Please model this.
Amino acid sequence: MDRRRLICLGVLAAIVAFAALALVGTAEAGKLEEAIAKTPQGVGKGMIDPKAPPGFMGIPGAPKPFWFFGILWGIWVGWIFSTVGAFGGIMAGVGHITVFGLADYGRSFKDTSPVLNKLLTDSIRTCNQYLVGLSSFISSITYYRMGRLVLPLGLCLAIGGILGAYLIPVLTAGKINLSHYVGYFGLIVLVIGCFLFYETTERGQASKKAAKAAAAAFEKEHIKREQGTSELAARGVEVSHWGFGKITFTFYGVEFSFAPIWPLLGGFVIAAISAFIGVGGGFLYVPFLTSVAGLPMYIVAGTSALAVFVSMVTSIFTYMFVKGTPIDFIFVGAELVGIFIGSILGPYTSKYIPDIWLKRIFVVLAVYVGVGYTTKGFLGYSIFPGM
Amino acid sequence: MAFESIYLVIDPWLIWFYRITGYAFVDFLLGTFVLAWIALLLGEMTISVSFLLVRRKIELVNQQMGKYQTMSMEALQAGDQQAYKAANKLANDAFGRSFFMQIALSAAFLWPIFFALEWMSLRFSDVEFEMLFSNRSMGFTGVFIVMYALAYIIFKRIKYRLPYFRRIKAILDSYKEYDFRQEAENSISRAP
Model:
């Protein structure tokens, strides 16, 4: 790592640490105990029976997901990650919201104990973020090693990411009730479902085929006669102009430029969505940079890794110092065990199911979950059963 | 079986490391460092085993990604915008597959952290350290993260002196030396 890069990373880490320490209120220890104490006692709906056995996060009478079911659900999530991709993060959320009954339990406190209701919302999205966000942080390190870094681009993304990853938890923690969270989660699922659906349509398939054909044609014509490429590659990324309006760099002898406002804005929006829903948005940086900014993949993977790294450091600091958002560590740990078992099973089993059919299955699932959650969150009831 | 009973069995072993010097603060740091070290070793072992089990698939996806990445650069240099966009799109697709596969695999590295934190929450939920020059405090989670980072930095320096991890490194190094251009040429020669 060269000196300038090291200095920039140091400055970024200092900004993150300063933001976390200077702007955040004092740690709210015992948040859960306070919320429980403020909840009416009894055996009715929206009450806590102090004599009931402790459940999720130690709340008396709360559903207590058996750790083995956490592993089983994790296997499903891990399998999806290693076969279909982004939908794994959605399924992690579905597990917390529906399968383990945490959302319905939390909703029962909507009128009797809004503080506990919102604390459960925060806990669910933090669990999601731990599961997906931390894992994407680890895998981003791999891409950082593999790829090349465009420092100004990474910095712009990271600064936007810091704002999003920091502001959203601070502004929304303790303020979003469970119904609205479920509604917004449903909307995101529908958007992802639409992308998956597009990929299964003739048009989506045709664009992929066309890309393959164009790549193959180029491969045949050019690849054997290019000799000077590796020398140009060895020169790496060279930034030729820094400015507020435009940053220019060359790579492989070709000039690229971008307006810093776009990666700033993109980093902000992606980190904000990740922090709000808790689905981990590391995967969105690469399509954003290649499709919207038109930059080559070769440098995008490493650059986006820097952005993921910085926004994850922000999240960890925010959760360490801001929140006493309680987490059921055993449950998250059990789900992680399941996810890595699923990630091993995925490659062994996916060869028996064609890719397009996998996507079609998950389109149906996305519509079911998305419409179910959106109606449940905003109308108060799900039009589909089991949500 | 409830997890609490597992913790009851391992608790006397783990707490031993928190009683070595007799100075509460030093013991807490020392014990947490050992716990972080155990979590790190377990994570390193499980992620390496998982990697060995699925490495063929990972290799395949990474090769595809590398091939199209290289091709997009070749196209760029040749001034062929259409081929550049096509190769970039295919590299992006391959990256998506590789990224999510590795996300799932990363869980194999992270899981012990949460079991360690749960044990700490049973033992040290009331422990808070005042931070210097600030009115904020750090709980057991913060101390664990710091100790884990420290253990990671130390382990990274000695990891590849251990024969098992040397073998993993050899596999990983072979990826760095992998010639994506050669692979691209081979794929042309294999084409009908």
Q: What stands out?
A: The beta strands of chain A are 238-241, 247-251, 254-258. The longest helix of chain A spans residues 114-146.
